[in-house]
Design a protein that fits this description.
Length: about 120
């Protein structure tokens, strides 16, 4: 009986550990948002807690710190590529907002340095 209980607990722990973030918003058109500041700025303000949040903004905000800390371990493949696209855009085109987001979610710069190194474009 104890062996059965242990196997059940291990299976439950494995299932919980493999949990991914919801893919409900994976079809959001990031290119449209990134190319239109009227769409982009409200998302940033939501994440900075300086404005109202849409449902997908709330979802993003609820996971952003954990995703940074664990290298997007629970992200779907779409979320991982989207994260790189958005962070790259912020680093290269929205430096002020990138600075605010970094100060809020990674003030010690433990995690963002990797992204900055990988995604910063060389200014010609």
């Amino acid at each position: 009986m104890n062996s059965f209980l242990m196997v059940c607990l291990l299976a439950l722990a494995a299932a919980v550990g493999a949990e991914q973030y919801t893919d409900r918003y994976d079809n959001v058109d990031l290119d449209e948002i990134l190319s239109n500041r009227r769409l982009l700025v409200p998302y940033i303000n939501c994440i900075l807690e300086e404005g109202k949040c849409s449902p997908d903004g709330k979802e993003l905000k609820s996971h952003i710190k954990e995703a940074l800390e664990n290298n997007c371990e629970k992200c779907t493949d779409t979320q991982k590529s989207g994260t790189r696209k958005v962070i790259g855009h912020l680093i290269n085109n929205e430096k002020e907002y990138w600075g605010k987001l970094t100060a809020k979610y990674d003030p010690e710069r433990k995690y963002v340095t990797k992204y900055e190194t990988d995604l910063r474009k060389i200014a010609a």
